[in-house]
Amino acid sequence: MTAAQADVTWERVADVVVLGYGGAGACAAIAAHDAGVKVLLIEKAPFGGGNTACALGPMRLPGDVAGAVKYYQALSFGTVADEDLIWALAEALHDLPGKLDALGVPLKLVSKGSAMFPTLPGAEALDHWMAGTGNKVFEILAQNVEKRGIPVLYGTRARKLVQDPATKAVLGVVIEKDGKEEAIRANRGVILSTGGYENDPQLQGYYNFPGVRLYPFGTPYNTGDGVRMAAAVGADPWHFVNVAFMGLSFKGPADQYGCAFPFQKTRGGFIFVNKTGRRFMNEAKRLTFRKEPLEVTYFDHEAACYPNLPCYLIFDETQRLKGPLYRMTGGMVGYASIRGFDDWSEDNSAEIAKGWIIKANTLEELAARTGIDPTGLKQSVGQNNKDHSAQADDAFGRPADSRRLIVTPPYYAAEFCLSIVNTQGGPRHNRFAQTLDTEGNIIPRLYTPGELGSFFGHLYQGGSNLPEALAFGRIAGECAAKEKPW
Ligand SMILES: Cc1cc2nc3c(=O)[nH]c(=O)nc-3n(C[C@H](O)[C@H](O)[C@H](O)COP(=O)(O)OP(=O)(O)OC[C@H]3O[C@@H](n4cnc5c(N)ncnc54)[C@H](O)[C@@H]3O)c2cc1C
After folding, report:
1. In the predicted model, is pLDDT for residue 423 greater than 80?
2. Quick one: 324 and 265 in the same domain?
């Protein structure tokens, strides 16, 4: 018996312990159970679902595996050297409709050849599939978990992995529930499927934008716990550079509810300005998944600041009366919608009353109330109105037909922040979802499927994370169930 085994008092035991009950965790638990072993699911939130339940739902899956391998290789820009893993991803995503169908999740082919980057090799190999929203998919997976009698401990946070110091094998996990810690022995393996660090300012600062708070469009419970637990057992960190932006979000409700309220309008009588009152981007541009340097995250080295954060949505009375400024479009949901936080008044008056939108009779008064430079603000609004009258695209490339006049008092400003869909960083894994250390060795009995250490290291193909989580969750569950009990 090694030191680690001797030191721990195990208060519970299972063959496979799954940490995090999102899509990857659900599929892992189902697969391990169906392989005939005893499974225990641990979930930090009072409910399951994670980012999986927030997903819009489209999936991009390979019709042709060999073509998809070329495409995934091209997307990675060298961030994935393991060819076996690339093949495994393409094969697992190709097989996903059949596997999900067996669980009662019917996937439908929407269209052939629908990749996001058609100029990359192999792009024609990907097809567009749909199984309903992520919430619907998770609901069916949860029914499968329930039907099998797999126990779930909700409101329980995985704290640290128990590792044998000699063999490096992961033997179990320490969890925290109601302020009390207990150790759970995993006879065969631990599946760490705790998602990303969408709601962890510290990791976002270390890896992405120091000093910028990124608000999660998905679950606020993904706070990078898995990143830290995996690091503590020697896992190799990868793909942290890749975060998927959602766009600009109202900051007032984001602060209140801890999740993003993205602004989705691309046309109307509004502009975005920074503290100097100046516009800095084309308001009609979608930021989701973009990889080029963005105006909003531009850092001014001389001034030692991000000049475009915070920024503000500026509009007038005509725009206010045109309808709610926050409303998800195109079937998008997000955490605020699925938890029912997204009630927004038709004329935006409730949000003015809550202080999320500031009202003033003149632009000068609006500037004084928000701290925006008044000269810059008046110039920007004036220029918007001139550009509108000239019916020309403006200096930032905003199309003429997307602009309206901002001339009718009172005037309004809403502070904006930056929101993200999800992060891809986490521990590196192989084709069996086994976690690798910095030498490329397998950390025995530890598996990391899902967006915690996702495949996508640079370009992200929309509609891939959800199927990746479901497919690698299943692979992890099947493989962990085959480990010999220790
Ligand atoms: C708004 C939104 C829309 C999206 N739309 C799409 C889409 O249309 N198509 C697509 O392919 N992808 C989409 N994605 C991405 C995709 O949904 C996710 O990447 C994927 O579902 C992640 O699955 P997961 O199981 O790895 O993580 P999650 O589903 O996030 O599950 C992680 C779980 O771990 C729990 N947890 C965290 N820490 C701990 C801890 N210490 N102990 C125990 N439990 C813990 C969390 O509470 C959570 O329940 C979207 C993401 C978001 C946020």
Report:
1. yes
2. yes
Q: What is the CATH number of the domain that holds 147?
A: 3.50.50.60
* pLDDT tens, residue by residue, 291-301: 888 999 999 99
Which among 7, 115, 177, 128 has a CA at the least distance from the CA of 461?
115
Tell me, what CATH number does 278's domain have?
3.90.700.10
SS3 366: helix
- Based on the fold, state whether residues 365 and 291 are members of the same structural domain: yes
Q: Which residue, 121, 110, 115, 116, is CA-closest to 69?
A: 121
pLDDT on residue 4:
56
Choice from 41, 52, 59, 333 to test ligand 1 binding pocket (greatest atom count within 8 A of CB): 52
Q: In terms of domains, do 57 and 176 share one?
A: yes
Beta carbons of 279 and 272 less than 8 angstroms apart = yes
For residue 317, the Cα-to-chain-centroid distance in whole angstroms is 35
The span from the CA of 260 to the CA of 255, in Å, is: 8
Ligand 1 mutation target, pool 466, 468, 470, 475, most atoms within 8 A of CB: 466
Q: How many residues belong to the chain?
A: 486
Q: Could you tell me the distance, in angstroms and rounded to a whole number, from the CA of residue 21 to the centre of ligand 1?
A: 9
26 contacts 48 by C-beta, under 8 angstroms: yes
73 and 86 Cβ atoms separated by less than 8 Å:
yes
Q: Which two tokens stand for residue 285?
A: 């541009």
Contact 417, 248 (CB under 8 A): yes
Dihedrals φ, ψ of 251, to 5°? -85, -35
Tens-place pLDDT, residues 176-208: 999 999 999 999 999 999 999 999 999 999 999
The span from the CA of 99 to the CA of 162, in Å, is 32
In terms of domains, do 340 and 236 share one?
Answer: no
Query: Range of 382's domain?
Result: 243-420
- The sign of the CA dihedral 142, 148, 154, 156 is negative
pLDDT at 17 over 90: yes
The reply to whether 444 and 408 lie within a common domain is: no
Bridge partners for 312 per DSSP: 273, 415
Give the residue-averaged pLDDT of 445-462.
97
Q: For atom 35 of ligand 1, which residue has the closest CA?
A: 20
- CB 52 near ligand 1, within 6 Å: yes
Cβ–Cβ under 8 Å, residues 188 and 480:
yes
**Atom of ligand 1 at shortest distance to CA of 194?**
34
210/103 same-domain check: yes
> Could you tell me if the CB of 73 is within 6 A of ligand 1?
no
Residue 21 Cβ inside 6 Å of ligand 1? The answer reads yes
Does 13 share its domain with 151?
yes
- Tally of domains in the chain: 2
Sign of the alpha-carbon torsion through 250, 253, 259, 263: negative
- Each residue of 61-110: pLDDT tens digit? 999 999 999 999 999 999 999 999 999 999 999 999 999 999 999 999 99
